[in-house]
Amino acid sequence: xxxxxxxPLERKDEKLILDSGDIARALTRIAHEILERNKGVTNLALVxxxxxxxxxxxxxxxxxxxxxxxxxxxxxxxxxxxRDDLALRKNQPILRKTxxxxxxxxxxxxxxxxxxxxxxxIRAAMDGLMDLGRPEEIQLxxxxxxGHRQLPIKANYIGKNLPTSRxxxxxxxxxxxxxxxxxxxxxxx
Amino acid sequence: MSxxxxxxxxxxxxxxDEITLILDTADSFKEVTGREIKKVPALRGKTVVNxxxxxxxxxxxxxELAAKRLSADVINFAPSSSSVVKGETxxxxxxxxxxxxxxxxxxxxxxxxAAEALAQGVKSSVINAGDGWHEHPTQAxxxxxxxxxxxxxxxxxRVAIVGDVSHSRVARSNIYAxxxxxxxxxxxxxxxxxxxxxxKLGVTVCHNMDEGLRDVNVIMMLRLQLERQGRAQxxxxxxxxxLYGLTAxxxxxxxSAAIVMHPGPINRGVEIAPDVADSLSSxxxxxxxxxVAVRMGILYxxxxxxx
Lengths: 189, 307
Hints:
heterodimer; A: about 190 residues; alpha/beta; Rossmann fold; 5-stranded parallel β-sheet; 3 helices; B: alpha/beta; 11 helices; 9 strands; about 15% strand; globular
């Protein structure tokens, strides 16, 4: 198996936006912001959106544990079945597993995703979450907000606001996926 | 990867990774069927038609439940209550159903090849829910899912399929898939119930049940089709039951962790002893429960637009 150690630090066709240090600091700040806003860990839970969001949710939970000494519940959400383009697709996307192994009633659930773009994924995630239970409140944490919203959705916690043009491609690459931690814009062509 | 097929008619042409994709997808739906709200919006606006020309409770209900849990609209078509009794052909019936914008047609028919013929004639996706003695792919897929759920891997797995193999579409679909996945398959039964040349499918034939069950990991019983009795396949039910009925003693010949499967409906006391059907090694009800998740997976994968 190849690990991120075997991979190049950066490729020619990409423009580096955040390096591993930047990502780590952004996540630490978001963890503090989550705790500050919710006055601690009481009733707090994280739900990561597959795949990048799940990794980030686990990293955030680790930081929360480091600050408060408490393991907060983590869920993993696959939004495929709630996508708004399923009826239009020729071939259906691969389905992965959803696992929210705690009761969401009375919980403040922080949805975690890597990139916030059109907002359609978050709409799907909220519908998916509501089918699993009735959280007290849903908040949203993202590593990158690149704008171009097509739905009235706004993040509560943002690692970095990144102005982009609509046709640019933003990628969050993480060690859990065998890459060096970084956020890049792929150059066109 | 995705399932790039309009129809699911047979397991014979499916590649190993296509089978694995279906089982993996079913796994995700298994979680959905365990929820309090067992419904997802994936097939909203799609129409699934159950076209069953043969009696079936389990398979039709399973497909109906699967489609409803995916939020599809479901119509059940039964020949006794339809224009088929007025002499309409299969294809004409199906074209009429298609004209009502059906996206997926689930067909059960007494003639082998009916699903294939239908698939060529309509634009809708066709899922074979059993055609004559030919195949019953979704039953085999749920059997495979149930085996995998028990933590067994297919490579080198020893499976005995016991009973009337020649009239069993369940056996045929399972043989195609299991052999492809690397399992060692034995078919067990009297010579009158073995299709001619079955060895060519990569299985070994065994006429003695005690030998056939030795050390197997999976015992797959087939339903004795009592309606065929009198066609000189076996002298009497009692004799058949004595020679090929699954008793607790015979289960002990198999591997100690072996599971007992049956596609249902079971003839208690004929091909399977009541205490075996209700024993801990029996996964018969798991098969039924998994059937819904597997069919949800298949409907989901087949629901891509054809245009």
